[in-house]
Amino acid sequence: MSSDPRPVWATARVVESRPVTDRIRRITLERAAGRRAAPGAHVDVRVRTPKGDDVRSYSVVESSADGSRLTVSVMLAQASRGGSLFMHGLVEGDEIECTQPLQNFELRHGAHRYVLLAGGVGITAVIEMGRVLHRLGQDYRFVYVGRTRAQMAYVDELAGLHGDRLELRVDDEHTGLDVAALVSGLPDDGRTEVYMCGPIRLMDAVRRAWLSHGRLIADLRFETFGSSGWFESESFEVEIPELGVSTVVASDASLLEALAAAGADMMYDCRKGECGLCEVKVSSVRGRIDHRDVFLSDDEKAVDETLCICVSRVAAPEGGAGGSGRLTLTL
Ligand code: FES
After folding, report:
1. Domain housing 19
2. Tell me: the pLDDT tens digits for 226-250?
3. pLDDT of res. 56
4. How many structural domains is the chain composed of?
5. What average pLDDT does this structure show over 27-50?
6. Contacts of 213 (CB under 8 A, 6+ apart)
7. Could you tell me if 124 and 216 lie in one domain?
8. Which atom of ligand 1 is nearest to the CA of 269?
9. pTM for the structure as a whole
């Protein structure tokens, strides 16, 4: 992945906000002209939440040629920490702070063929890639996975542009995705790249299938904004005895946020489970660690000796025995 340029914050005005599904809104922002957002780009947005200002990242689904109009699509999260709620409350004329388009999910040119794979709101990260591949006349498939058609944004637009290249996999229509078949059905010539964004279960299943077929991991590229956990987010206790810190992580807060609020000065960078800078040692856990990062290996996650505190959390022991989750960390 390429590194981002430094984020430059500026005021942007909301020029459109409308629903595209029950829970997803399309929001267009106008800001100073710059460059068109490249496929896979995102903007960081300063959101106001009941706990104060915070930053969220949203993929750019559409950009004007000069980058002065950027459209994002935001799903109202079930366990919203206030970010998506804030975004859904925006109306035309509101002003917010956002960055220029930033890039860490670049579409590489030169592959023989491409597969775009989106699950749910993960469609936002690959929609512009699809437009570019179509425009360039590339060989590609566009696989879009969802629970119900009503929850899937932009289906009509995608079908209109991509025709037969679009494969809708809809659980409640019994056309759900067979991940193993998808991966094993790709040519073995090492000239196919997959770009995916969606729930962690989908991305993890694809990654496992990809590796078990001996494919190059560099040809499997992903964006993590759409990631969810293995378990529902619930509150749990955390302590770091060396710092004298003990607190409760609310279901709508991250471990990193809760520790910061309790006065622990923890290291972090990406806050998306990618860089590993926030990895901390676990000295004991009651419950199940919900590893939501893509930094640790499967083996590292299996032994639960560390976790990435920006995204990972703890779920109560199976069956609820022993109460809520509890985590003790060591520095
Ligand atoms: S801050 Fe990058 S993985 Fe947590």
Report:
1. 9-103
2. 457 788 788 899 999 999 999 999 8
3. 86
4. 3
5. 92
6. 183, 184
7. yes
8. 1
9. 0.81
